[in-house]
Design a protein that fits this description.
By secondary structure, the chain is an alpha+beta fold. About 25% of the residues lie in helices and about 30% in strands. A hairpin with a 2-residue loop joins strand 3 and strand 4.
Length: about 150
């Protein structure tokens, strides 16, 4: 059994038989399982008939657009990948290591590994191009997710 985080459960509607709830929870929470658990605890059972994810990470349902709207003006609505990953600290890779990094080589040079602590980073070239996610782990630095 995995531990999950439930921050809040709100009853939005209830007519004695059917109801609508809002759940604020941590990642990895299975809402269908939560509904089943609630039904078992109440001794009457429960069944989920609909699910709407209102937020996920930095995304909110209020910012969503239809496919038609997106097709009309994609530049207005598409979010740059590095902006989505702003939760990770930025790291700029020196030009001399760029070829190695994008070709999947784990860099063990202390000029790179000595600059950062063990963590995942947004990696940029010296001219500001976003490469992907890099990770410093066990005295190596490598691209974990190469978007180039």
């Amino acid at each position: 059994m995995r531990e999950i985080e439930i921050h809040a459960v709100e009853i939005l509607e209830f007519d004695g038989t059917d109801g609508v709830i809002r759940v604020r929870c941590g990642k990895g929470t299975y809402i269908r399982s939560l509904i089943d658990d609630i039904g078992q605890d109440l001794g009457c059972g429960a069944l989920m008939t609909s699910l709407v994810r209102e937020t996920s990470g930095p995304f909110e349902i209020g910012d969503a657009v239809t496919a038609e709207k997106l097709a009309e003006d994609p530049e207005r609505y598409l979010i740059p990948m590095d902006r989505i990953l702003e939760g990770y600290e930025a790291f700029t890779i020196a030009d001399e290591f760029l070829g190695l990094l994008v070709n999947g080589v784990k860099i063990r040079d202390s000029r790179i590994t000595g600059e950062v602590r063990e963590a995942v980073y947004r990696v940029y070239t010296t001219d500001g191009a976003f490469l992907g996610l890099g990770e410093k782990k066990d005295d190596t630095f490598f691209l974990k997710l190469n978007l180039r």
